[in-house]
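TASK: fixed-backbone design
INPUT:
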């Protein structure tokens, strides 16, 4: 790999897991591209958090991945930094609903951000990675990419699809110095998960506190939420040279959920 600062683009990186990943890479000396669909003025606090201990350049790229702007996002990132070494597909949304009550537009919205956008960003990043013979693609999937839960048909389907995309692309680029992997976290207490509490409580007819204990933490034998920083540490490892033989795999960080 060439010398000089490495660059990483993290989608959906102004809160939760994505923000933790962006901070970890910034602290490790990477040039970091942050992303969300919001105007930069609305995410200034998150940008400042990443810049606080950064050892590289930090830039913000507004892009609405639900509107098929993923490939253009990568193009703008490469124009800014001159290359893309690491792509972290983290953006995702959730909709909790019985499948027969799930609106088509909600199905398509979840799929477009959690799966279609990853296809678009990977498609945009691979030519540059191939040209330089080095690259890392890290898809943030979910334990729901490995197992299912009721009322989450769109999310579970999209995350299962993301694992299929991960495996396929890994095989295609295996001889070109590029690895493609997925991280599958269990429940992480992020804004996305917190937004689910009311929907889950309504769907199961229980309180939000009961949702935490009986729904979210019930399948995790540790009975603890996963910390965003745990996921970030794994992403940082997968981006390194010592992870060159790890490709096409899904790594669960789920407190033992999928060991059952």
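OUTPUT:
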């Amino acid at each position: 790999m060439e010398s000089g600062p490495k660059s990483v683009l993290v989608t959906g990186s102004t809160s939760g897991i994505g923000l933790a990943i962006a901070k970890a890479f910034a602290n490790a000396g990477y040039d970091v591209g942050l992303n969300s669909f919001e105007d930069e003025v609305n995410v200034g606090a998150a940008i400042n958090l990443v810049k606080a201990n950064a050892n590289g350049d930090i830039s913000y790229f507004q892009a609405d991945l639900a509107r098929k702007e993923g490939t253009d996002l990568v193009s703008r990132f490469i124009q800014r930094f001159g290359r893309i070494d690491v792509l972290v597909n983290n953006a995702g949304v959730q909709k909790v609903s019985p499948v027969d009550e799930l609106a088509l537009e909600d199905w398509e919205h979840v799929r477009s951000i959690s799966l279609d956008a990853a296809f678009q960003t990977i498609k945009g990043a691979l030519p540059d990675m191939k040209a330089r013979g080095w690259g890392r693609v890290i898809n943030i999937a979910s334990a729901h990419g490995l197992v299912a839960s009721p009322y989450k048909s769109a999310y579970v389907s999209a995350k299962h699809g993301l694992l299929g995309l991960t495996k396929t692309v890994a095989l295609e680029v295996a001889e070109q110095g590029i690895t493609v992997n997925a991280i599958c976290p269990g429940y992480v207490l992020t804004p996305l998960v917190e937004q689910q509490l009311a929907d889950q409580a309504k769907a199961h007819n229980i309180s939000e506190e009961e949702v935490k204990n009986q729904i979210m933490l019930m399948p995790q034998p540790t009975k603890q939420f996963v910390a965003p920083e745990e996921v970030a540490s794994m992403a940082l490892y997968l981006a390194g040279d010592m992870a060159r033989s790890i490709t096409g795999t899904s790594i669960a960080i789920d407190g033992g959920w999928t060991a059952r």
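COMMENT: The CA atoms of residues 67 and 210 lie 36 Å apart.
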